[in-house]
Hints:
Blueprint: H1 17-39, E1 46-50, E2 55-60, E3 63-76, E4 81-83, H2 99-107, H3 111-114, E5 117-118, H4 123-138, E6 142-144, E7 152-162
Antiparallel strand pairs: 1-2, 2-3, 3-4, 3-7, 4-5, 6-7
Helix pairs in contact: 1-4
Amino acid sequence: MSDIDDDGDVLGAPEWYAEWRHEAVHQLMDKQAHVRKIYGINDLPRYDYDVEAQQLTFSENGVVKVVADIQVVGTVSPKDWLWGWANTHWPEPVVADLERVVSFGEENSIQELISGYVTDVDLNQLGWELTAVAVRVLDAVGAYRPPSETGALFLLIKSNRFVS
């Protein structure tokens, strides 16, 4: 459960965590702005992800322009957030880095990082917040949420590169 108490603290977490998570969100926003500026991925009309290859590609007119190395952070359904590591649908290599996020949660007694499922009122916002935490813990370069009408998939971007 990712409830916030009257003091703004995340329940099931140390006192410092809410501010740390908030900082992670702002760090992710800065990283996203940098990735958009350098790689122009928002201007490329097509994306595809290949879970087995752990890659996300951005293309235009059938030509791949940018390749990103990814990890699956988690998914949002109509009722909860499910961490990628807790979802048996994902092959282990595409969620392997998240073990460091779980370890961080265990070391600091942060319940939302060690519970497979997390609920909240605004699940899309929660998805971005938990993705920001993963990006911060793993020192990733950004994140991506493919457009979807139902649910959402949150991907962590480990690195980006142009395709010649």
